[in-house]
Amino acid sequence: MFIHMETNHKAEAIKAWMANHKELETQGTIGQRFGKSTTFVNLSLNKRMTTKGAEALVNEVYEYLVEKYGI
Fold first, then answer.
1. Which of 29, 28, 63, 65 is nearest to 55 (CA)?
2. Are the beta carbons of 7 and 59 closer than 8 angstroms?
3. Whole-structure pTM over 0.85, yes or no?
4. Which ranges constitute the DSSP H helices of 1-71?
5. What is the pLDDT along the chain (71 residues), one digit of tens a residue?
């Protein structure tokens, strides 16, 4: 779990949105867009890796999905 609860909620929102919109974005496409491996994206979204980099990725992905798809 991330230190900031807001980031935990964002990760859950991203996972829920991606589960329902697999044709638009996947962990692989997110990884490519942000220059990260699919494994890093997976560990970050599932809160298995809680480094500052993982937290930053979750926040960046959330902002991207909000801007592009309006989640």
1. 63
2. yes
3. yes
4. 5-20, 27-34, 38-45, 52-69
5. 888 999 999 999 999 999 999 999 999 999 999 999 999 999 999 999 889 999 999 999 999 999 999 98
